[in-house]
Write a structure and sequence with these properties.
This protein has 313 residues and is mainly alpha-helical. It has 12 helices and no strands.
């Protein structure tokens, strides 16, 4: 074949570069459009403002509980047995628990552990599941097969049952240890979603153009594929926040999760269960706070799903 023929059939580097740039611009435009359209939907949903307002208050409770109560459950003389199970009164709107501790103050300080568990577990499962999902989706082959089999093993074990099994062996204790154990069990859901999104996007024009320009796998994964696969992951992780908070409360209620002297809504509910008929306030108030918290995150997850999941539009 003559040099002239080769010149005609071989595309110039500038042409490939232009095609890659155009493909990247189109992908970025689609992602920006998705975010913009999703935000416009969120702005029109009253449920978004209600749930977001509740979550902001909960974050304030977790970060600065002193803004909401002048007392500390860890101070000397906070619990007085002569106040045991006294009903709500002026200055003690939630009443007292069986140890004579102010339920309102304990509920305020218990917010921190619940938020820590929800946020830390969600971030850890998203990071681990997302990273493994990207690797499996891009590499494929034997690595994808091995990771998929490992995921199936973890998925076969329900979160609460698995956490009960592990904590019965290693013990619970505080919010950080509970978060770590639930993160070990909770990452497969994010992995499956991310892997599926990567497989669906890795043959798009902007990815092929980046490969033609010699971009390495890391750049392709985090610069080209990841921004276009985040929407479904964000939806799932938002809803999972409430799931992990309720799971922590269930574990603490069963005596496996957060332990005394740490404060947990699940522990407070467990301590009040046997005295519900005679002193219902000791159970109802922490249970109500827990229910509002979980409901707020689930409501936020619902509106985020409606806004950012194209299948819901």
């Amino acid at each position: 074949m003559s040099e002239k023929t080769i010149e005609k059939t071989a595309p110039a580097d500038g042409v490939v570069s232009d095609k890659a740039t155009e493909a990247e611009e189109k992908a970025a435009a689609r992602q920006a459009s998705l975010i913009r359209d999703g935000w416009e939907i969120l702005r029109k949903r009253p449920m978004f403002y209600i749930s977001a307002s509740v979550i902001v208050i909960l974050l304030a409770l977790a970060v600065a509980p002193g803004l909401f109560t002048s007392r500390s459950p860890f101070s000397d003389g906070f619990c007085q047995l002569q106040n045991s199970l006294n009903p709500p009164s002026s200055g003690h709107m939630f009443g007292y628990d069986v140890q004579g501790c102010d339920i309102y103050t304990r509920s305020v300080f218990g917010t921190r552990n619940s938020i820590i568990v929800g946020v830390v577990t969600t971030l850890a499962t998203t990071a681990l599941g997302g990273l493994l999902g990207i690797i499996a989706g891009l590499r494929g082959g034997w690595l994808d097969a091995v990771l998929s089999r490992v995921t199936e093993v973890f998925s076969a074990l329900p979160l609460i049952v698995g956490a009960l099994l592990i904590m019965s062996i290693v013990g619970g204790g505080d919010a950080w240890s509970v978060s770590l154990i639930m993160a070990v069990l909770g990452w497969p859901q994010v992995y499956r979603i991310m892997r599926g999104e990567v497989i669906a996007n890795k043959h798009n024009d902007y990815v092929m153009a980046a490969k033609a320009l010699g971009a390495d796998t890391t750049r392709i994964a985090f610069r080209h594929i990841l921004p276009n696969t985040l929407a479904p992951v964000i939806v799932v992780t938002t809803m999972n926040l409430g799931v992990y908070i309720s799971a922590e409360a269930a574990l603490s209620y069963l005596g496996i999760g957060i332990q005394h002297p740490n404060i947990s809504w699940g522990l407070m509910i467990s301590d009040a269960t046997d005295r519900f008929l005679t002193s219902p306030h000791a159970l109802l108030f922490p249970a109500t706070v827990l229910s509002i918290t979980v409901l707020a995150f689930i409501m936020l997850g619902d509106v985020v799903r409606d806004a950012f999941d194209p299948k819901m539009r």
